[in-house]
C-alpha cells in the first residue's frame, strides 16, 4: 500500500516469553522500518502488525492506520520512505527460504492482511480490530447468536 506522506510514527510489537507485546513507537524518518520472523511462526518475539500514527496520536484521539497479517508462519513487513515524500507499507509471507511449486491448474491462497483506520486513537483501532475478528465469517465458523453481521 502506498501513502502520500511520510508524516507518521511507526508502531510495532515484539517481546519475549512472559513479556509479550511490548510497544515500540518511533517517528518515521527517511529510512525503512522492517519487522519479520523466519522462525517458522509468528511469536511473542515478532508480531505481524504495523501501526502508522499521526504525530501526537494518543489512546483516545488521533489518526491510526493498523495492518495485521492473519498468519502464524514466517512473515515480513516493511514501512519504506520514498524519494518524493511518500511511503510504502508491505506485510506478507517472508520470502526468505520460501518456495511453492504450483502444478498446472492449481493455485496458492496467500494469507489475508486486515487494514483498520481510526480517528479515535489507538483504542479506536483496537476496538475496530476486535469487531473485525469477532464478526469474521471464516469457512467452518458458526456466527454466535446476537452478534452483528457487519462492522459498525
What report would you give on this structure?
The structure is a single chain. By secondary structure, this protein is mostly beta strands. Helix content is 9%, strand content 38%. It is built from one helix and nine strands; from the N terminus they run βββββββββα. The chain has one helix at residues 121-134, and strands at residues 2-3, 9-16, 19-27, 32-37, 49-53, 64-70, 75-81, 87-93, 112-118. The chain has a five-stranded antiparallel beta sheet with strand order 3-2-5-6-9. It has a four-stranded antiparallel beta sheet with strand order 1-8-7-4, with no helix packed on it. β7 (75-81) and β8 form a beta hairpin. 21% of the residues are buried. Mean pLDDT is 87; it is low at 147-152.
Number of helices: 1
Helix content: under 10%
> What is the β-strand count?
9
Poorly predicted segments: 147-152
Biggest beta sheet summary: 5 strands, antiparallel
Q: Which structural class best describes the helix and strand composition?
A: mainly beta
Spatial shape: globular
Q: How much of the sequence is in beta strands?
A: 35-45%
Computed over alpha carbons, the radius of gyration is 17 Å
Biggest sheet strand order reads 3-2-5-6-9
Distance between the termini: 24 Å
Label this structure with key terms.
152 residues; mainly beta; five-stranded antiparallel beta sheet; four-stranded antiparallel beta sheet; 9 strands; 38% strand; disordered C terminus
Amino acid at each position: 500500500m502506498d501513502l502520500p506522506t511520510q508524516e507518521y510514527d511507526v508502531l510495532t510489537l515484539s517481546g519475549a516469553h512472559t513479556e509479550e507485546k511490548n510497544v515500540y513507537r518511533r517517528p518515521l524518518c527517511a529510512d525503512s522500518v522492517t519487522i519479520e520472523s523466519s522462525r517458522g511462526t509468528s511469536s511473542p518475539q515478532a508480531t505481524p502488525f504495523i501501526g502508522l500514527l499521526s504525530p501526537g496520536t494518543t489512546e483516545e484521539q488521533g489518526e491510526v492506520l493498523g495492518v495485521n497479517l492473519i498468519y502464524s508462519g514466517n512473515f515480513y513487513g516493511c514501512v519504506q520512505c520514498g524519494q518524493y515524500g511518500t511511503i510504502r507499507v508491505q506485510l506478507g509471507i517472508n520470502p526468505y527460504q520460501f518456495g511453492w511449486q504450483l502444478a498446472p491448474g492449481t493455485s496458492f491462497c496467500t494469507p489475508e492482511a486486515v487494514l483498520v483506520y481510526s480517528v479515535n486513537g489507538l483504542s479506536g483501532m483496537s476496538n475496530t480490530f476486535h469487531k473485525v475478528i469477532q464478526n469474521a465469517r471464516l469457512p467452518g465458523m458458526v456466527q454466535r447468536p446476537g452478534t452483528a453481521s457487519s462492522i459498525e
